[in-house]
Amino acid sequence: MHRPVVIAGNWKMYKTGEQAKNFINELNPLIKNSFAFVYLAVPFTAIKPAAEQAKSGKITIGAQNMHDATEGAFTGEISASMLVEAGAKFVILGHSERRKIFNETDAFINKKMIRAVKEQLQPLLCVGETLADREQGRTAQVLETQLSGCLQDLDKNDLKKLIIAYEPVWAIGTNQTATPEIAQEAHLLCRKWLAGKYGEDFAQSVVIQYGGSVKPDNAAALLKMPDIDGLLIGGASLTVDSFSKIINSI
Ligand code: PGA
Predict the structure, then answer these.
(1) CA–CA distance, 59 with 56 (Å, rounded to integer)
(2) Does residue 165 contact residue 211 with C-beta atoms inside 8 Å?
(3) CA torsion 136→128→239→7, rounded to 10°?
(4) Which residues contact 18 (CB under 8 A, 6 or more apart)?
(5) Which pLDDT band holds residue 2 (cuts at 50, 70, 90)?
(6) Closest to 83 measured CA to CA, from 106, 60, 57, 107
(7) 129 included as an active-site residue
(8) Is the whole-model pTM more than 0.85?
(9) For labeling, which of 116, 162, 176, 231 is most exposed (least CB within 10 Å)?
């Protein structure tokens, strides 16, 4: 099956709205001939200006997190409908920094997944093992646990726009990029799990991105692997030069 290529930037806690507008303005002309879909997950305050600036190009703007409740006494949190109103089209859920620093569990991420789908926000679900998991031979088990926990009570009609990002925790921000072979093996594992739960046709339709120290010089080799359909990029999405090079490397 022919799957789209989706290259997503995850800006984490970098860039103001003004910086986001300038970035998009500079990036747009450089990527206009790429056939990749280009996503940018920006800080909450940059969503509206970024979405307005992105209207004339091919970049889709999204968020990096949200709460599962529609509203309520949750100081400092943000709801799906607020993100949609600001112009977000997708939301990253279950990033390893949320899991590790903010103690997010698969059960909580699952609630957010259900809410995102209800509010028509495209979910970009992150999964990935730690170095200890890998060294102890638990990679498959960890990925399966995260997938089944985060996707519980969601059927395939809910998940038509699902994107999964395989991000081995040991590769994020470390310059220890997974080799294309290691990444491919994990992607295949995720796809097989999806096939077991939702059927082969569905599994073949899901975009599975790789994330973890993707740079202009390793992007093309990763994207050549049969089950790697895109990339989720942190550090290298922060400059127009490196992000555009990655987008144009396919
Ligand atoms: P990195 O981050 O590209 O800086 O390793 C990836 C991510 O956290 O999504």
Answers:
(1) 9
(2) yes
(3) 130
(4) 49
(5) confident
(6) 60
(7) no
(8) yes
(9) 176
